[in-house]
Amino acid sequence: MKDETLGSRLKEVRTQAGLTQAELAERVGVSRKTINTVENGIFIPSTLLALKLAHALKRKVEDLFFLA
Q1: Count of alpha carbons within 13 Å of 67, Cβ hemisphere only?
Q2: CB–CB of 46/34 below 8 Å?
Q3: pTM of the model
Q4: What residue spans define the domains of the chain?
Q5: How far apart are CA 44 and CA 40, in angstroms?
């Protein structure tokens, strides 16, 4: 079984929503740096954070993250 990684469409969906990293961070209660590290695949979000991000962007978690 190959190693799977978490892919992210967070930046794409966030920009489509017209939000900056700072604005999204404020909506979900994290720092802008946290949003940046999630978008760049450095930090894998917790289930709670992934759900909060999806809710803030009015999308499903699966629209934001996928197995790569």
Answers
A1: 3
A2: no
A3: 0.92
A4: 9-62
A5: 10
Give the Cα separation of 3 and 61 in Å (integer). Answer: 21
**With respect to CATH, is domain 9-62 assigned 1.10.260.40?**
yes
How confident is residue 25, by pLDDT bands cut at 50, 70 and 90?
A: very high
What sections of 1-68 are H helices per DSSP?
Answer: 10-16, 21-28, 32-39, 47-56, 61-64
Q: b/e map of 2-16 (b: 16 or more CB within 10 Å)?
A: eeeeeebebbebbee
Length of the chain as a residue count: 68
- Average pLDDT of the segment spanning 20-32: 98
